[in-house]
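Figure S4 source data
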Amino acid sequence: MPADQHPVLVFDVNETLSDLTPLRGRFEDVGAPAHLLPTWFAGVLRDGFALTAAGAYADFTSVAQEGVRTLLAGLEGWTGDGEAAARHILDGFAQLSVHPDVPDSVRKLSDAGYRLTALTNGSVALAERLLDTAGVLDRFEALSDVGGPRCWKPAPAAYHYAVERAGVRPGQALLVAVHPWDIDGARRAGLGGAWLRRGASVYPRTMTPPSVSAQDLKELAEVLVGDQ
């Protein structure tokens, strides 16, 4: 898939580029089991999606903090400070790193002529810190979050906002994401979709299939660029 077919790559950030695993320790710090991380994060996405579907909007931090407070309040035997616990867990996002395959793969895609952008349901500030720490911020020409269109992905307006900022049509952009719902949303909005499996083996048949799939970003770069 040469760069002239999809000259712009739009990267999702949370879990696609960043590794959320260290947040498990943040849950343990506040006296909650580490295994609550995926339950909490799925709930954050659910609530953000629900607000968007209802025509409303709240930013990621607000939704995520409420998610922590609600989850811990229902945890049997937990008697801590919900507000403080939420702050501690959310502060962990500023300490996250990218997956090991990200830096070299980003450079390879950039060197091959792809224009790199990012679109997150989180915040531009955290995405910027993440990419700067990884040494690849300079390879991205634009970082966008859903505060611009005031709707969360997978709403079509979110993807259209990102491609409009890049000055291209939806069909000239390829979303790179680990979440099938994100790929489906991008495809329905007219973009291509590159699914990073990152250990997953099944893509839901109810969702629009990806244009291309790969185990991780290293493999995707090999597919898009070749072995050079």
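Figure S5 source data
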Amino acid sequence: MSNRPIVILTALDLEYQAIQAKLVDLELHRHQHGTRFEVGRLDGGRCRVALAHVGTGNQSAAVLAERAIAEFAPAALLFVGVAGALHSHIALGDVVVATRIYAYHGGTSEDEGLKSRPRSWETSHAADQIARHIGRTNAWTLRLPVRSATPQVHFGPIAAGEVVLNSKVSGHARWIQQNYNDASAIEMEGAGVAQAGHLNGALHVVVIRGISDRADGTKEITDRARWQQRAVANAAAFAAALAEEIAAEDKDGGWLPATRTARGATMEGHEVTYNIARDNARVGVQAGIVHGGIRVSFDLDQPTDLADALAGFRAQLQRARSDGRLDDDTYAAAEAELTIADEALQAKTPESKSKLTLALKKVRGLVGDVADLAADLANIITLAQALS
């Protein structure tokens, strides 16, 4: 997994608790100005997470998102919580992943009325692609509470303002329908965290919302029916899967810009620049001055046929399950990703290599705590990346 944590922010206590329940080895981290983070790792995985409660509203979300980014230099920032649905095809309990965040309150008041001055932030292409991959595979649903109905995952714009919308006919509702009618959901913090990400070198920010009401006057009824708790449990399950995948991508190097320099990393007092290899290229070590011996080696005894390697790994996976080193849920999730990998290997289309590699990286995130499986899978991923 990546050395950089994933920051997850929430606005409500029940949202915080839904994420906190998925973390282990928690330690308190106090910011110098009083903000408290809990830092741990996802249960069953190795992804490090820094969790904080920011309260409601875009302003407080922006301030504390900026504080979290400066404190942890994360690989990504996720905002997880509940929202109201703006379209009838989105059901209670479904998950909406933002493709764009609208700050919808901007406008100018003129004699003929209020005119919208839209401001929006797009979710990064890399984050959007990983989120869609997770949504397609459905492996993330293994993280849902037992006997929970399987929600749908929707991708679309989210509107973020400063008021709770609970009407279909109010002036506020008509304003959104007229100017932001492609928005899938409405909430109160997304614009703040999106702006903080934008101001920090286009940091990957993903807003994930569970639908707890329909923004139509029935919020009190849905809240009494505990839809907030159910919706945020679904959003938290998706966020956990996304965090693991991003951490795996970041460790592999595919998540970083090719020219990114890691400030503060040193070798005998000299700054180190990380170089990212693409396609079939390999970089062993590149450094200006190195003190001490260097040894670089490649294991040539591993299988070189990818299909045979995948078949052998499947057998290892079954043995790990049989001897108790791998639980049933993890085994099922890994098998689902290996099926995707097999299909991609057979397809031999321009997109199949990327699909194959993403599936294998997902398996790596699932089995990372089993040393021999993780080591063999690293060699298989190398074979996959070497495909022409």
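The longest helix spans residues 227-252. The chain has two domains: 6-252, 306-385.
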